[in-house]
Write a structure and sequence with these properties.
With 154 residues, the protein is an alpha/beta fold. It contains four helices and six strands; from the N terminus they run ααβαββββαβ.
Length: 154
């Protein structure tokens, strides 16, 4: 018995049991050949078609339209939700706002690496001024409902 790379004596190997039996357990008809179905994903549209259709539908073919020379700059639009806006206020501004209820901190989300403000979560009932490139309709409603304002910046 070969366990953990320990060599076993030849007399225990399974091939000893198969001596005198022509095909050694691999069958006369199918034969134990090297790569009988082809290597890798060969035959996906031919002799392995049923397998590909059943277990990998949509593997072959194309979908959608081509976009030549797609530069990703114009699609850069990381989003932040309104419930995270107060985490972007620095400690100094937060201390000033805590002392004076009339003050509202200005949060430039672009400086924190965000381009759009979305509406998930709740805002505390404290005014906040948000500078951003893009804002969803509901996010703007929530910010205004808390007494704040949205300033769109390029």
């Amino acid at each position: 018995m070969a366990a953990l790379g320990v060599l076993e004596p030849t007399r225990f190997s399974h091939s000893r049991k198969k001596r005198g039996h022509v095909s050694a357990g691999h069958g006369r008809i199918g034969k134990h050949r090297k790569h009988s179905g082809g290597r890798g994903l060969a035959g996906g549209q031919h002799h392995h078609r049923i397998h590909m259709d059943k277990y990998h539908p949509g593997y072959f073919g194309k979908v959608g339209m081509r976009y030549f020379h797609k530069t990703h700059n114009k699609f850069w639009r990381p989003a932040v939700n309104v419930d995270k806006l107060w985490t972007l206020v620095d400690a100094e501004s937060r201390a000033k706002v805590a002392e004076n209820k009339e003050l509202a901190p200005v949060v430039d989300v672009l400086q924190s690496g965000y381009a759009k403000v979305l509406a998930n979560g709740r805002l505390p009932k404290r005014p906040i001024i948000v500078k951003t490139r893009f804002v969803s309709r509901n996010a703007e409603k929530k910010i205004k409902a808390s007494g704040g304002a949205v300033v769109l910046a390029a």
